Amino acid sequence: MWSLVILILLSLFAYILTDELIYKLQSLFINAGLFGIDLCKVSKEKIYFHFSPEAIGVISGCVFLITILLFIPIGFGYSLMDRGNFPHHEFAELLAALLSICCMLLLGFADDVLNLKWRYKLLLPTIASLPLLVVYYVNFNSTTFIIPIPLRQFFGISVNIGFLYYIYMGMLAVFCTNAINILAGINGLEVGQSVIIALSIILFNIIELRGDQYKAHNFSLHIMIPYLATTLALLKHNWYPSKVFVGDTFCYVSGMTFAVVGILSHFSKTVLLFFLPQIINFLYSVPQLFHIVPCPRHRLPKYSAETDLLRASRTVVLKKDMPLLTKVVLRIFTSLKLVDKVEDKDGVILNNMTLINLVLIKLGPMSEVQLTKTLLVFQIFCTCIAFLIRYPMASYFYDL
Ligand code: UD1
Ligand code: MG
Prior knowledge:
Layout: H1 2-31, E1 35-37, E2 51-53, H2 57-75, H3 77-81, H4 88-114, H5 118-128, H6 130-139, E3 144-146, H7 152-155, E4 158-160, H8 163-182, H9 189-208, H10 214-238, H11 247-264, H12 268-274, H13 276-289, E5 302-304, E6 309-311, E7 314-318, H14 324-335, E8 341-343, E9 347-351, H15 355-363, H16 368-390, H17 394-397
Antiparallel strand pairs: 1-2, 3-4, 5-6, 7-9, 8-9
Helix pairs in contact: 1-2, 1-10, 2-4, 2-10, 2-11, 4-5, 4-6, 4-11, 5-8, 8-11, 9-10, 9-11, 9-16, 10-11, 11-12
This protein binds uridine-diphosphate-N-acetylglucosamine and magnesium ion.
């Protein structure tokens, strides 16, 4: 209990430090050539540009890691006096968590500076999750899924999927890191969604502190509280109109932090429930991510200087390079009314397939800040659904 109080005080300090550092270090990033153009403020005629320092997530990420490092002698202080009973396995868990998050900070920053190709964006989180998987193997090695009651007549009470469970956990790390990065491009969205996911996890941990898994949820809280504090400071600067861009560094650190607590505190399926909007965005994006439909470098909405509103950005599929698979996919999405499509003699023009553009084609053009708020309200709505599935409805599926 005392360790949580100290951690909250340290996190308050981390909030103030992150806020101050972001304010003071912005010019260093610009001087180093790390800046981006705010694409939702640039008119077609390029009347005015809005440059902001990029990759500022590295500041919040560093303060987050430093806070946890400073906390180690406090959290493990009592055990340090009694070295014979030092909890080596708990310490190993924390070190593995820190190593994985630290790797993502480094790799995310490399991505911001070097603009890595998509194949590396998939490979790097897989490698960074290896320390976690090793600690999971040594400390728990539980690879069993409990089958929901309605399916037990086919599969039995539980299924041990063995090595596949480790593949699932590696893929979870890859998904979490990239899912936030592709639901991005308007001010405050990357950080806003991460704050809501972090708050959801913290609320879930607090509820579960009364249960028999309280140690695991206590561990998760010790990671999530400093993460939330530093991320809130970042949100202050990234909210509309953004003074800084967070970069891929922030998305990777966030995704890996959520994957780390999900894996090591054994609630990875609940973490996935909190990622509902990101899952929808990923599934909707699949045709563009796998190049069945052309995918431009940026899929963020298009700004119109005349109206000061955003509308869905578009991509062109030429009739001459339209294989059968593309035709089938377009037909399915059109019949489900999920794309806004215009045909002409050369080909088809349709909206870029992201949740952000989907909101714009369904609700009409809106201002950037209104669009961010709409998507964040949807994220909160999905958290409510997640809690509904996790608690009242769980008794229909599992023996509680
Ligand atoms: C991902 C998306 C891309 C989207 C981009 C926006 C996929 C496959 N990739 O690419 O479609 O356009 O994120 O971040 O879905 N920016 C703004 N306003 C913001 C945030 C970012 O204009 O509020 C622009 C800035 O020019 C900034 C750039 O986006 O420099 C950052 O893009 P980056 O993170 O490098 O794009 P990706 O993650 O590769
Ligand atoms: Mg990005």
